[in-house]
Design brief:
about 160 residues, mainly alpha
């Protein structure tokens, strides 16, 4: 995940710089113009996800010595945090218009396409976010220590 995040941020920067330095209106210019949408999620990846992934990698390094040991629920819950996977997936989704623009189709120029495409993109981001949040909450519940129960039977409440 760390290599994927760093490679994605580096490639985004390389294409953006390549688009700024070229003078003609070739495919790299169309891709660089389309990547403005992916800049925000890529910055979130650079700030939030990379830091979390590095911490997870350091915490999981203890399990290298014992390969058969299952990961604790706390580590699995931290790996399922929405700020680990969501920005990566949103950045990948935000690069789709740039890929389509590189192929020669401009979604902004097509009448009646921008609205539905934006709606589908927003719904996809919402679905991805809800899925990540549900998985994280399910794993964090398993990581919580169980409360000690009293051996005494519950009686009437006196105030």
């Amino acid at each position: 995940m760390l290599a994927l995040a760093l490679a994605g941020v580096a490639l985004l920067a390389a294409v953006s710089i390549g688009g700024l330095s070229s003078a003609d209106a070739g495919p790299i210019d169309r891709a660089a113009a389309g990547l403005t949408l992916a800049t925000g999620p890529a910055l979130v990846v650079a700030v939030c996800s990379v830091r979390r992934i590095r911490r997870l990698r350091a915490r999981a390094g203890a399990f290298d010595a014992a390969p058969g040991t299952p990961a604790p629920h706390g580590l699995r819950a931290a790996a399922a945090h929405p700020l680990v996977g969501l920005p990566l997936q949103v950045t990948a989704l935000a690069t789709l218009p740039a890929v389509i623009a590189t192929a020669g189709t401009d979604l902004g120029a097509e009448p009646g396409v921008t609205g539905p495409a934006t709606t589908v993109g927003a719904l996809a981001v919402a679905v991805i976010g809800v899925r990540h949040a549900l998985r994280h909450s399910r794993l964090i519940e398993r990581a919580q220590p169980t409360a000690a129960r009293s051996a005494r039977a519950a009686g009437p409440l006196h105030v």
